[in-house]
Amino acid sequence: MSARTLLSARGLVVDRGARKVLRDVDFSLSEGEVVGLLGVNGSGKSTLLESLAGLHPMTGGSVQRNDRGFETTVRDSEGQRGDISGFGLCLQTEGMSGDETVLERIRGACRVAGLADNSEALNEIISEWGLGHRADDRICKLSGGLRRRVAVLSAIVPVALNSEPSVVLLDEPSEGLDQSSRGQLLGWLRALAMRGHGVLVATHDPEVITACDRTVTISETSELTSKVQESNLEHTNLPDPSASEYHRELVAWTWRLERRNPIDTIGRGVPALVALLLAFTLSTDIARSSENYDLLAALILTPAFITAIVTPAIIKRLAEERAGDWWRAMTGASSRGWFSIMGVSLILPLPIIYISWFVIADDTALEAMNSDVMLWLWLFAFLIIDLSVAASALHLMVSDLTRAGAVAGILLQLVLIWPFLQMTSALTSIMSNGMSFELALGEPIADIAIAWLTVVLLWAMAVIIPED
What we know:
Elements: E1 5-16, E2 19-30, E3 34-38, H1 45-52, E4 60-65, E5 72-76, E6 88-90, H2 102-112, H3 119-128, H4 144-160, E7 167-171, H5 179-194, E8 198-202, H6 206-210, E9 214-218, E10 224-228, H7 249-260, H8 263-283, H9 293-309, H10 313-319, H11 323-331, H12 335-342, H13 349-360, H14 363-368, H15 372-399, H16 407-411, H17 417-433, H18 444-464
């Protein structure tokens, strides 16, 4: 009986600008084999491997997976994207944030793959690879060789612990490894094949090539030449597979990094406090009368609005060593939506709005203004949080552009002024006449609804339209 195909590309065409990097490529990876992807620099090895992981838009063709008993689309030229969880992926760069610890990274990779925690097995593997004494150290404190070990383990451990045949994609995994680690890598490659997993490794390393059952050479014209060979290398004994369990590891990853290094809270909080001081200074020259409620409402909402539109820290964290590409591959089509949600500050908007109210509105104004304001300020905080989700999505969309720093990209943030003006109008109405639930233009609830719908549409545009 022939081996089952786990991953395949059909008629794959991938462009980089005006240059066609891959032209009508057909490729397949079967269970129980290690395939070496060879070729000169610039021939498209990394592009093919990353396209198989769903990372690149395709001008033609599709990538299919069949490692779970049924065929699903990883990505195709029509923009369709599917789930890739369960794959192992090691990019040419580490694909990790420096604020993660060694154990968190490897355990997180297993969780993303849908595996339950197996602490005993993970500790044993980490020690076997010479990282036991560094398990709780941040990755940024490791040498280049140790970081490479962690990146490789993040790709092969989730598959090793998977009881079902799956796929491992490795781009130059031996680069930077010492001789001992290279030997372990070769043993693991053979052991993964013995378990029925399929491994594709892009490499120039002659030692890694000896671990392959088949080599595929890609030419500069995207022609693939396959050659079968026999590997006599011994395999390593792998730990027993774990039970399957689904986790939203991206949420935990974001929270851990922010708790350890709160650059997002600080990056949003400092501009908000500066805006609050400026708003207070400006408000001292404004009479607290109904004629000026619109100006006061704008000043009250501005500091919280600033927290929403500041570039979220997740942009920087995803750009670090291509960590974002690793997460995009693991989370598939839903990546930008999840990134935008994870880029939001849930802590600052509510206290900032109430602080702004008490700082800008003095005691006399509090008595004159409608008492409904205090009862409904929380609603504006939640609107600011929703607006922050849309702003994060816009930042992520701009960061994916070829010229992310272009002025045109920055100007996209100006569309967020419209929902802010609607919120200002709603707060002005509440300050003047109290809360009203009439669905008529100019009424608070109608302005709030328009602001919310605008935010949702902006988020959808940033998340869905630019996917390809």
